[in-house]
From TrEMBL:
Protein name (record): Nitrate/nitrite transporter NarK
Alphabetic keyword roster: Membrane, Transmembrane, Transmembrane helix
Species assigned in the record: Corynebacterium guangdongense
Transmembrane feature ranges: 5-22, 28-52
């Protein structure tokens, strides 16, 4: 469940960031949009990592 939340949240942030970059153009706000896009990508990759960790056959809970 946690991996799914990370994936959905990351995909939303990534899509909003890309949309904001396209609409901001060459302005100072494009820097903030790029940071949002990077954050969305990082959360999306973290969701993939959590999913792979949860469903790995050799994963052990300590």
């Amino acid at each position: 469940m946690r991996a799914l939340i990370y994936l959905i949240l990351g995909a939303i942030l990534l899509a909003v960031g890309i949309w904001w970059i396209l609409s901001a153009g060459f302005s100072v706000m494009a820097i903030v949009a790029m940071l949002l896009t990077a954050t969305g990508g990082a959360v999306f990759v973290a969701g993939i990592a959590v999913a792979l960790d949860m469903f790995a056959p050799t994963s052990k809970k300590i």
